[in-house]
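job 3f2a | input accepted
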Amino acid sequence: MAKWVMVIDLDKCTACQACVVACQVENNIPIAGPDETERQRIIRWMEIIPFIYGEYPDVRMRLLPRPCMQCDNPPCTKVCPVRATMLGPEGIVAQIYPRCIGCRYCTSACPYTVKYFNWHTPSWPEEMRNSLNPDVSVRPAGVVEKCTFCIHRLQKAREKAAAEGRQLREGDYIPACVQTCPSCAMYFGDSENPKSIVSDLIKSPRAFRLLEEIGTEPKVYYLSEGQ
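job 3f2a | predicted structure (227 res):
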């Protein structure tokens, strides 16, 4: 069984936010207007956050891309009363939108703050409606949404592999953010495959995970700056 993992090399990342835009377009993420922005109701499945490390006076900062961590021990799934968020067999934390009742327990439980409540009915300017991705649902107001590693792409890759009479290959399934990164700072693959790039990268001495000490076991790894 595959275990999908993302690795982000902070030495290569330029914080250009191409991954943020790609994620928004690929997943039909609602656009917040001025009023919603003032209420801090912007939805970002992928976000660039400041990561400060070191001790004074040797303090440094990196801008760090942060999707859903797709934890192997996710707190969000434990508190959902209707199992609208659940951990799949391949390690992707899914969000079942028709089942969500909008209680927002999962948003409170997530230590990474990567789950967002959709406060308003999504709308797009007329000239942008034809750009919506038909493979991804448009979530209604009142549900929680989050990054899913573009799981719809996994389904399409499986269908293509089945039609060609072969197994899923390395590189068949890549999320939009990874595909779009201009500096090739993002890697994605099956950590259970010993021949995959990510299986080597996660063993690097530069590899670390956010809040690893709290036991959530995230599947997004970062490579620290080279020494």
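job 3f2a | The chain has one domain: 4-223.
job 3f2a | closed
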